[in-house]
Write a structure and sequence with these properties.
Elements: E1 4-7, E2 10-12, H1 24-28, E3 31-39, E4 42-43, H2 46-59, H3 68-84, H4 90-96, E5 102-109, E6 126-133, H5 139-144, E7 146-152, H6 169-180, E8 185-189, E9 195-198, E10 202-208, E11 221-225, H7 236-247, E12 252-254, H8 259-263, E13 267-272, E14 276-283, E15 286-287, H9 295-307
Parallel strand pairs: 7-8, 7-14, 11-12
Antiparallel strand pairs: 1-2, 1-6, 3-4, 3-5, 5-6, 8-9, 10-11, 10-13, 13-14, 14-15
Helix pairs in contact: 7-9
This protein binds pyridoxal-5'-phosphate.
């Protein structure tokens, strides 16, 4: 497997792939994108990602330059071309080294034009697809869980809430601070102090339900995640996690999450396409629950892996 790039449908090696310095994605962050991964060499939830890309583009008044189906075919063809590329030993060599899955980024910019902020100056939208071998997260992060820090921000994306716009500067700076503090992810708090999401992930809590007349002894658990209205990116993994929770009989609801709610949760985890489900065992200086990945997080992740076709494979925390 190798890295390949598709620009407006034409495939290039990375060193030959060029876009204009007048492209508005470069000049103004005037673009939207999607991050996708493959399972078994096939892009997972491709339809959902392309639908979200189109919605994000609509939110900032960029129209898809080709029908969604054609963009999907370009993504699939590029993944296939990267898998078959001779560099690095080809697909057989890659499989032998265990590198069989792809990390895919699909970008759509407003295109290029003369300098000036006015979007009317842009020519035709530009589409770029990047494919490279997926590097899975180290097993230790799944096995032991991660630390996160909380950061209060005003986010750049708030001009187009819910859209996956390319300007991640505030999140990038929050992530830099998190990494400097030895944490894996930063959880973004809105100006009123509510937990929104991670810099590139959604966040979930497992809470013990209050006792009711129907279940006075074991009230069971509840899965909580901030609602769309909190200003989150509605994650595709988030949706799958809510579905598998229902299949496992774990009720879920989308509700605002305050810091005190986050800190009193029995389990916390983050979700994203590339990382699936990662247990959080520390938030700032606070230890979450028992300080180890919890049973509900594990059960949800195992069910999620079945859903993506990896039912028989070792679980991420079981890998050496
Ligand atoms: C801000 C933000 N929230 C959530 C997510 C998770 O979304 P998904 O599960 O669709 O990858 C991402 C993914 O990149 C993100 O950037």
């Amino acid at each position: 497997m190798t890295r390949l790039v598709s620009i407006d449908g034409a495939i290039f090696r990375p060193e030959e792939a060029k876009v204009s310095v007048y492209d508005r994605g470069f000049l103004y962050g005037d673009s939207v994108f999607e991050t996708i991964r493959t399972y078994g060499g096939k892009p997972f939830a491709l339809e959902d990602h392309l639908a979200r890309l189109e919605r994000s583009a609509e939110r900032i008044a960029i129209s898809l330059p080709v029908p969604r189906e054609e963009l999907g075919r370009e993504v699939t063809a590029l993944i296939q071309a990267a898998r078959e590329a001779p560099e690095g030993g080809g697909a057989a060599g890659a499989a032998a080294r265990g590198v069989v899955e792809s990390y895919v980024r699909v970008m759509l910019t407003r295109g290029s034009g003369p300098l000036g902020l006015d979007p009317a100056l842009a020519g035709a939208p530009l589409r770029v697809i990047l494919v490279e071998p997926l590097k899975p997260l180290p097993a230790a992060l799944y096995r032991d869980g991660i630390s996160v820090v909380t950061t209060r921000t005003q986010r750049a994306g708030d001009a187009a809430p819910g859209a996956k716009v390319s300007n991640y500067l505030e999140s990038l700076l929050a992530l830099r601070d998190a990494r400097a503090a030895g944490a894996h992810e930063a959880l973004i708090l809105d100006p009123s102090g509510h937990v929104v999401e991670g810099t590139t992930s959604n966040v979930f809590l497992v809470e013990r339900r209050p006792a009711t007349h129907e279940s006075p002894e074991d009230p069971g658990h509840l899965l909580i995640t901030p609602p769309k209205e909190a200003g989150i990116l509605v994650g595709i993994t988030r949706g799958h996690v809510i579905d598998v929770a229902a299949e496992l009989g774990l009720p879920s609801c989308c509700e605002p999450v305050t810091m005190s709610r986050l800190l009193s949760a029995e389990e916390v985890f983050i979700t994203s396409s590339l990382r699936e489900i990662v247990p959080v065992v520390r938030v700032d200086a606070h230890v979450v629950g028992a300080g180890v990945p919890g049973p509900k997080t594990r059960a949800l992740h195992a069910a999620f892996r079945k859903k993506v076709g990896l039912g028989g494979a070792p679980l991420p925390w079981e890998s050496p």
